[in-house]
């Protein structure tokens, strides 16, 4: 199944949660994606994973992207059974205290991927079993991959930067 | 007499431990000699790859990509270059594709040699390690001829390769092809089918297929669990569809499917397949330009995810472009990161000494885990 | 019980096989060289220490822009209107050198040997030599100067303190 069919299928099932299906503009290349509302993310991903015709059993990647007015979380999914893939995006308007539901119970691999997003973007995942910083020290301040990030001057007496 | 009081003991393994293949700290919760939990703590080698990538142009990201998985730089470059090419829609000349595949497969052999050699070292044999490094040196010499560097090449560029291969390199690669085949047989004799080694690794650290898929394991770790899945075959990119090769999988020859020996053996068999690929690609290599003609790299706004088969699994790059000369966001999804995340699950109930064997069989490179 | 002795037998057999193989390998030619005394012959494309032939440099700063770690520092001052504009050497295309270049420093503590700077150089005045032994006693010695009127080499040579006391 290609992304468009999957998007239509999702639209049928969740008419209010699916926002848009976007394909790259005519001159550009790249992947199409489906934009969904953040409240329903867990239900939709659960459906994608457990529906027999879709059965996305492989979570490739969870990445965060910081735009000036919003934070985005991008899920890349793939199915070993049906050999199709899909990109699911969700937007978080609240940059101060962004929250979204975890998908750890669907894919165990999501555990560390979500921790990484939390570490670098400060998006907290509700119901995550072990939400700690993963790459940076536990007492680091700020979220480095945000575009407006400014690093602290000293960390435990060590000067940061050149 | 009252019963002896027992309690769980927490052992800190690493960050400076020879068997962790870098700086990895594992918090082991042990009950006697049995490991109850193994919690990996990573981040000691974090070099802000993703933040760096946002601050240099598309071409300048390449040296940083090299430094992710520093034992298989060529394979990293291929993944990043193809992701940007997907965004640009550039067609790479045929000769460049062939050079890329030859280099990537040679690097795969070098990387597997390192994995196998150090795995032997982890479980207590020294000779195969020296032999593996001797043969790896041969490959590094070839890379040095082509790119001038021995470890961090920056040779595969967006749109092709840096320079055409030096004359004389084809003879050198052919010489390597003839030299290396018998060396794998020797390696089999001294390590793979050594009874002591087999007893040490069979039925240790079994990863069932369900768990492997659920955790998102890829590459030899997934194939060791018995899934015939290789991106070069299943979602072919570059010129792989034109070449013939097999995908070895773990069969449970010595113990259960998905144990350490299976994962190890997949790597050994993959080396033979890579050697086949190198020979074929070298024979079919056409003449022509080695780099696509292009202006400064400046993709139209959009995003792309591209994954390739690295020696350690599927390396994916998610690149977001906003139309400027610098990428807006580059995310590298490294295979080692997912491999190490399942360590806790497979180490439960293993002996402490087996934890070392399990880490070695997962073949992680901390440069890629921490990025 | 049977398995126990079978394991011992198999173990001994594998060791014996390995030993015979090791013995054969021991008589093959050596793979190592005695490094500080014997040096390897390096291929033509070796990436060693950068060198700038400042007489050919036109001060375009393309190398400084291409550098992903920003380790090249260039100061270029435009020549006055009545000053004569010299040309670069004929091999490099005889281009006009419109700038004075009082500073052309490369910080080798940062350099990552990616060779991106040498490729963009329009006059090929910046290139990589085959020198690869960089160890110095002081970090400052790794900042090299190539500017006009300067002797190519460490910017300021600082004698390590322990050597001073010996003198």
Describe the SSE topology.
The complex is a heterotrimer of chains A (162), B (371) and C (167).
Chain A: H1 3-13, E1 18-22, E2 33-36, H2 41-50, E3 58-66, E4 71-78, E5 85-92, E6 99-101, H3 110-121, E7 124-126, E8 154-155, E9 158-159
Parallel strand pairs in A: 2-5, 6-7
Antiparallel strand pairs in A: 1-2, 3-4, 4-5, 8-9
Chain B: E1 9-13, E2 25-31, E3 34-41, H1 49-53, H2 61-66, H3 73-88, H4 94-123, H5 127-147, E4 156-157, E5 160-161, H6 169-192, H7 195-201, H8 209-215, H9 220-224, H10 231-234, H11 260-284, E6 302-310, E7 313-321, E8 329-333, H12 335-341, H13 343-347, H14 352-362, H15 366-370
Antiparallel strand pairs in B: 1-2, 2-3, 4-5, 6-7, 7-8
Helix pairs in contact in B: 3-4, 4-5, 4-11, 4-14, 5-6, 6-11, 11-14
Chain C: H1 2-26, E1 50-52, H2 62-66, E2 72-78, E3 99-107, H3 116-120, E4 126-128, E5 143-145, E6 153-154, H4 161-166
Antiparallel strand pairs in C: 1-4, 2-3, 3-5, 5-6
Brief characterization of the structure:
The complex is a heterotrimer of chains A (162), B (371) and C (167). With 162 residues, chain A is α/β, with parallel strands linked by helices.
């Amino acid at each position: 199944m290609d992304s468009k069919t999957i998007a239509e299928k999702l639209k049928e099932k969740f008419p209010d949660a699916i926002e848009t299906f976007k394909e790259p503009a005519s001159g550009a290349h790249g992947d199409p994606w489906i934009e969904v509302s953040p409240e329903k993310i867990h239900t939709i991903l659960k459906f994608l994973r457990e529906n027999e015709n879709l059965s996305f059993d492989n979570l490739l990647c969870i990445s965060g992207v910081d735009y000036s007015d919003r934070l985005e979380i991008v899920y890349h999914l793939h199915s070993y059974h049906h050999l199709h893939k899909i990109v699911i995006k969700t937007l978080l308007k609240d940059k101060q205290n962004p929250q979204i539901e975890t998908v750890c119970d669907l894919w165990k691999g999501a555990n560390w991927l979500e921790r990484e997003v939390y570490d670098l973007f400060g998006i907290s995942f509700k119901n995550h079993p072990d939400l700690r910083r993963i790459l940076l020290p536990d007492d680091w301040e700020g979220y480095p991959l945000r575009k407006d990030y400014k690093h602290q001057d000293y960390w435990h007496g060590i000067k940061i930067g050149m | 007499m009252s019963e002896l009081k027992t309690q769980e003991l927490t052992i800190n393994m690493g960050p400076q431990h020879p068997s962790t293949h870098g700086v990895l700290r594992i918090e082991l919760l042990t009950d006697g000699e049995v490991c109850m939990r193994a919690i990996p703590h990573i981040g000691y080698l974090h070099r802000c790859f993703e933040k760096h990538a946002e601050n240099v142009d598309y071409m300048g990201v390449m040296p940083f990509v090299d430094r992710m998985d520093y034992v298989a730089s060529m394979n990293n470059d291929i993944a990043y270059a193809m992701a940007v090419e997907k965004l640009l829609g550039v067609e790479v000349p045929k000769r460049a594709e062939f050079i890329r595949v030859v280099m990537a497969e040679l690097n795969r052999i070098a990387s597997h040699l390192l994995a196998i050699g150090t795995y032997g070292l982890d479980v207590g044999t020294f000779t195969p390690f020296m032999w593996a490094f001797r043969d790896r040196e041969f490959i590094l010499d070839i890379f040095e001829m082509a790119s001038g560097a021995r470890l961090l090449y920056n040779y595969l560029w967006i749109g092709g390769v840096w320079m055409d291969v030096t004359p004389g390199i084809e003879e050198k690669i052919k010489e390597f092809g003839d030299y290396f085949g018998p060396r794998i047989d020797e390696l089999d004799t001294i390590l793979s089918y050594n009874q002591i080694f087999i007893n040490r690794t069979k039925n240790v650290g079994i990863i069932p297929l369900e768990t492997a898929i659920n955790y998102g394991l890829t590459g030899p770790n997934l194939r060791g669990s018995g899934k015939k899945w290789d991106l070069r075959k299943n979602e072919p990119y570059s010129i792989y569809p034109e070449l013939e090769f097999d995908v070895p999988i773990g069969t449970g020859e010595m113990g259960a499917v998905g144990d350490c020996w299976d994962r190890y053996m997949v790597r050994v068999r993959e080396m033979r397949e890579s050697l086949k690929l190198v020979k074929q690609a070298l024979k079919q290599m056409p003449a022509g330009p080695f780099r696509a003609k292009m202006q400064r790299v400046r993709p139209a706004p959009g995003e792309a995810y591209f994954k390739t088969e690295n020696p350690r699994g599927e390396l994916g790059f998610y690149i977001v472009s906003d139309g400027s000369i610098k990428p807006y966001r580059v995310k590298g999804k490294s295979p080692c990161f997912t491999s190490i995340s399942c360590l806790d699950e497979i180490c439960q109930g293993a002996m402490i000494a087996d934890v070392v064997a399990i880490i070695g069989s997962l073949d992680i490179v901390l440069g890629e885990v921490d990025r | 019980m049977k398995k126990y002795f079978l394991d011992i037998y198999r173990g001994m057999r594998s060791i014996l096989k390995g030993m015979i193989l090791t013995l054969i390998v021991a008589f093959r030619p050596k793979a190592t060289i005695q490094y500080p005394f014997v040096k390897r012959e390096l291929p033509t494309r070796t990436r060693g220490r950068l060198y700038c032939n400042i007489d050919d440099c036109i001060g375009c700063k393309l190398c400084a822009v291409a550098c992903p770690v920003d380790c090249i520092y260039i100061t270029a001052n435009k020549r006055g209107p009545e000053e004569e504009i010299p040309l670069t050497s004929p091999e490099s295309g005889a281009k006009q050198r419109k700038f004075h270049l009082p500073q052309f420093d490369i910080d080798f503590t940062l350099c990552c040997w990616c060779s991106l700077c040498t490729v963009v150089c329009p006059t090929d005045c910046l290139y990589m030599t085959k020198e690869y032994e960089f160890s110095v006693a002081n970090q400052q010695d790794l900042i090299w100067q190539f500017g006009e009127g300067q002797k190519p080499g460490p910017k300021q040579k600082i004698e390590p303190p322990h050597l001073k006391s010996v003198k």
